[in-house]
Amino acid sequence: MEPVDEVFVEGDAVEDGSPATLAEELSVESLVGNLETVTIERDQFRDAYQRAAADFDNFRKNTQRRQDDELTRALGGFVERLLPVLDACDGALTHGGGEAAPIMAALLAALEKEGLARVDPLGEVFDPTVAEAVVHEPGDGGEHVVAEVMRAGYIWQGRVLRPAMVKVTD
Question: What phi, psi does 147 have (nearest 5°)?
């Protein structure tokens, strides 16, 4: 057998039309050029992948946050519908109906475990974010202080469901 000096791959030709040799095709410069091209493409694909992965992660977090917010709002609406029951228990206790105390305590304890907080600002400085002043009485001229709580307010997981209805002295 004779040694092969030239390798002709079908379709390969140099500019003058003669068959390209393996040495000419696989020159170091062309290999380095191909490697640089492939490296650039790899980096572009990696960047695109990382952007897509970050976008998906942000989408997942936003979706989870929206679902959590919707659940909190729905539960807040449910708790808000229970506030008249707590008010009725308050009224019963005010008028001597001691039988309502265990029911109110149990209901309030269960709701407090889930994030409900009762607002009863009696004797505190008036805070319009958690209380609504419906009666103003003259006082000693200092800060506005809550003199009487006419109806308790409630906060659900950091959001005011219903402000307390109070009487304020100046």
Answer: -95, -30
